[in-house]
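User: Hi! I'm working on a homework problem where we have to compare a predicted structure to a textbook description. Could you give me the structure for the chain below?
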Amino acid sequence: MEFLSCRFQGGELRKMAFLKKTGKNIQKHYQLYLMVLPGLLIIMIFNYIPMYGIQIAFREYSFSTGLTGGEWVGLKYLERFFGSYQFWSLIKNTLMISLTTILFSFPVPIVLSIVFNKIRSKRQQKAMQTIVYLPHFISVVVLVSIMTLILSPNSGVLGQIAAKLGYNGVIMGDSKMFVPLYVISEIWQHAGWNSIIYIAALSSIDNALYESAYLDGANTWQIIRYIDLPSLVPTMMILLILTMGSVLGVGFEKVYLMQNSLNLPVSEIISTYVYKIGLQSNQYSYSAAISLFNNVINFFFVFVMNQIAKKSTGNSIW
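Assistant: Happy to help. Predicted structure tokens:
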């Protein structure tokens, strides 16, 4: 008993010392804490407080009974989703689009940042950056509309060229073309914007490294291999970890807008299915259960990728 009492008192003393130290730190750096406060409030309001509604995935939700008034059904809706004939099709389509997008789009911003870093003329560099940044500001609705017009077999330039080359189908309705079109449009729209963080990482490299490399006779490719790429590895790993957190969270807007009855077998993903089940069919508990499963799997991917990055490169989020 005396041992437990001493251990309890020691824990209380450590807790009081920690709180006292934290209070002094906040008092000393209160400007920084005030600057961070709006961001914390936004995260709390829009990310943590809504978690209270997760319970509808385990209840028979209805508007009349509210979030907590429905009957508790446990894992009923998760088991229903796992037993659905669409389960593996949704997982396959989501992973296919997501992993293909990561595989082909992730290296492009890195290449662009290195290219921009090698342009000596500031005017040319800014002009090129402006050109590749602009697509990011085009809305998804406008982008898909442009794709539809260009690829139309009747009025679209590329559609007419494809027709003359012997392609008789509707490109936007071809299930084999859906993933390539999605990936290419994703690269075109976001690669330039995503390169900004890599450009910032390259700008922090000490010029003495470049000067030493030139004096030692290193050419451009050797400088990229031994200076630029190693300097980008920490940023690359952090962004890759964050990207893996959305493996099953493929962008809903573009997929839904590109979706039609012809390409539905490959374009129906978890997010579009949740939208149709939840908002169009009013099956709120079922859609909430699917979304919960989706988020748990995404967190699992983040955790695994973080551990792999930590052991292989020493860079991680936590």
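For your comparison, note the following. Residues 175-203 form the longest helix (29 residues). The CA atoms of residues 277 and 283 lie 6 Å apart. Good luck with the assignment!
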